[in-house]
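Re: beginner question about structure tokens

> Can someone show what the tokenized structure looks like for a real chain? I only ever see the sequence side.

Sure, here's an example I had lying around. Input first:
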Amino acid sequence: MLTLKEPYPFAILVLYEQYSFQKQRAKQAIELTKSMNLVNTSTPANIYSKENLLFEAENGKVELQIAYDKVLYLKADGNYVEVFYMDQHNYVQKKLIRNRLKSL
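And the corresponding structure tokens:
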């Protein structure tokens, strides 16, 4: 027969294990974040400015060729991808490319 006193040690044990597990994962996340920051700071900021990105359609035809630093963001729209970028006059432009974001 169970009494009210018996479930408490079990609950405390479970809570302690969860706390320990969460603490361990938080340490791993902090270490991973630090290592990512080291990689980002060791890479020069202008390393990508000389190279261009090529955005290809499903048929393999290059639809857009643009520098890394000019790309603002990509937006998935079904089987299409909208590429938002800055043109040579620093205006925001949008190019619709028939391809999936996963493929790009």
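Each token stands for a local structural state, so reading them left to right follows the chain. The first strand starts at residue 52 and ends at 56.
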